[in-house]
Amino acid sequence: MKNTIIRYGLRSAVSICLLALAGWFLGKNLDYSIQEVIGYAGIIVSLLFVFLGIKHYRDKENNGIVSFGKALLIGILITLIAALAFGILDVIYIEYINPDFVTEYYSHYVEQMKNSLSQAELETKLAELEGQKELFSNRFMSFFLMFATVFMIGFIISLISALILQRKPIPGN
């Protein structure tokens, strides 16, 4: 089980990092909302290794049998590897690759809000956004937010995969 988790966790981690980097560099001229959709799509695609890892364990290592609990555990552990990798990559991106990202992102949303909110609403939202900007500038918080995002999506994929792939032994065999 350990080898399956490491193998599929690393595959998921490498794919999430490659897809994120490709999205950041190839999509840097795209609108932030489109970049966000591409980012979530990359997370989901890379977490398909959760399903594949559980299936591999069930079919190749455990004689076609896996309980829901064991399948969920495998999925969560694969997800943890991918989430750690993505959290670390996000910190590297914000600290070294694109240190202006938080400022650029903030400016983009300020412009959007100026076009859609009244002056009173704008001032309230700007105060909230300023607090969030400080939060996102903290590398530990940035790591945690990206880790948690991938982990939550991966947990859902693990849950669905465990439900689909669970297979109990046939009585009498």
Features:
173 residues, mainly alpha, DUF4199, DUF4199 domain-containing protein
Oligomeric category: single chain
Number of DSSP strand runs = 0
Order of helices and strands: HHHHHHH
Residue runs with pLDDT of under 50 for 5 or more positions: none
Count of DSSP H/I helices: 7
Main β sheet profile: none
Protein name: DUF4199 domain-containing protein
Keywords: Coiled coil, Membrane, Transmembrane, Transmembrane helix
Coiled coil: 110-139
InterPro entries: DUF4199
Explain the overall architecture.
With 173 residues, this protein is an all-alpha fold. The protein has one domain (2-165). The chain is built from seven helices and no strands. It has helices at residues 2-26, 32-46, 48-61, 68-97, 101-116, 119-137, 139-165. Helix 3 runs antiparallel to helix 4 (68-97). The longest helix is centred in the middle third of the chain and has 30 residues, at 68-97. The radius of gyration is 20 Å and the shape is elongated. The mean pLDDT is 89.
Topology:
Layout: H1 2-26, H2 32-46, H3 48-61, H4 68-97, H5 101-116, H6 119-137, H7 139-165
Helix pairs in contact: 1-2, 1-3, 1-4, 3-4, 3-7, 4-7, 5-6
